[in-house]
Amino acid sequence: MAERSGGAYMHNERPIRPEPDEIPKIKSAMRVARIMKWGTRPVSGLMGIVVLLIAVNHPWYIAAAWYVGILSPLILFGRLFGRCPRCGKTWGSQGPFRLFYESEDETESMVCGRCRLDIGLGLRGP
Ligand SMILES: [Zn+2]
Prior knowledge:
By secondary structure, the protein is mainly alpha-helical.
């Protein structure tokens, strides 16, 4: 019983301290997550306008293909590099996909929504 209270069963209380080798990964992943958060909003807004202009003279599916073709590399970039080094969860709100489901925002909570890795501690580390 004594080892159970040691800390392996924490869920919502205390975040997990990152390992030293995870700290640089946390820093770069959080940088990408922030770029995704603040970068995709103006880009998707601008693309909305461009797509509307395309849709005036072209079939809707051409406009939709433009939208997907420009936004998906951005989202892929965030998915590949803005991930938790421990559990692989993509951090931050999912740009335009936030419209479809409410996701946790690690750029605000500073704790990984899946494995409770302490992101704030990783950013402050050496
Ligand atoms: Zn995690």
